[in-house]
Write a structure and sequence with these properties.
Length: 247
């Protein structure tokens, strides 16, 4: 695992976009694994800028997102589908039919999970998987547990995750309690992992994920086992590691 220490969230966003743009240039029909949340916003903004100003071409790119809330349809403003439309799909020249997210209102959620894994595998998995990290160490919505889950699955969000997501909703009761998440097989099958983190709220999770034991109690720690994983973290997120003084 390689750690790129950067000054702040702005640098983190640019660095992640630089790696992603490299993949898009090298392989115009690449598959990108995408994340939502606050952390990737700067990355998507930079990819949009590169598309508009420097002709970075997404026309043959396919994307697969990590997760979606159960119970929110695609038109709900807080659905991850709506997030991707607002921050990425409408801002670059990716073909909307090449953008995949799990369907959080599918009638048969089990079948939806199975189908999502089948589809991702049929595309040969992601060339690059972008990941954020939860304050509790989750990646996608693989929450701390006593075992890793390989397949895409339905998950009950932890109280900490529900609390963390409340900032996007009017009331705590409005925050979805369940999600569909890509499992560890889909994530770890990507050719490259790029995990981004900024701010002191992520410091404990980053220290444990990068330097602690590989354990499902800290789901992100599994990326230590990936042959090509890059962590891009800012000074505050690295505060509890020995890299703290180096940025
Ligand atoms: C989102 C996702 C989550 C987030 C994580 C961090 O698709 O998979 O794992 O990456 O919860 O969220 P932010 O960036 O909002 O701190």
């Amino acid at each position: 695992m390689r750690i790129i220490a950067v000054k702040d969230a702005g640098q983190m966003g640019l660095e992640a976009a630089r790696l992603m743009a490299g993949v898009v240039r090298e392989k115009p029909e690449a598959v990108l694994g995408l994340a939502t949340g606050s952390t990737p916003l700067g990355t998507y903004a930079e990819l949009a800028r590169l598309c508009a100003r420097e002709g970075l071409d997404f026309s043959k790119i396919t994307s697969f997102n990590l997760d979606e809330y159960i119970g929110l349809d695609r038109d709900h403003p807080q659905s991850y589908f709506a997030y991707m439309k607002e921050h990425f799909v409408d801002l670059v020249n990716i073909a909307p039919e090449n953008v995949f997210l799990p369907d959080g209102v599918a009638e048969d959620l089990e079948a939806e999970c199975h189908e999502y894994d089948r589809l991702l595998e049929s595309y040969g998995f992601a060339d690059l998987q972008l990941l954020g990290i939860g304050t509790n160490g989750h990646i996608a919505f693989n929450e701390p547990d006593d075992h890793f889950v390989a397949a895409t699955h339905k998950v009950a969000l932890t109280a900490e995750t529900i609390q963390a997501n409340q900032r996007f909703f009017d009331r705590l009761e409005d925050v979805p309690t369940h999600a569909i998440t890509l499992g560890m097989r889909g994530i770890m099958s990507a050719r490259q992992l790029v995990l981004i983190a900024s701010g002191s709220g992520k410091a404990r999770a980053i220290a444990d994920a990068c330097f602690g034991p590989v354990t499902p109690k800290v789901p992100a720690s599994i990326i230590q086992l990936h042959a090509n994983a890059v962590v891009i973290a800012d000074r505050e997120a690295l505060a509890l590691t020995e890299l703290a003084g180096q940025v």
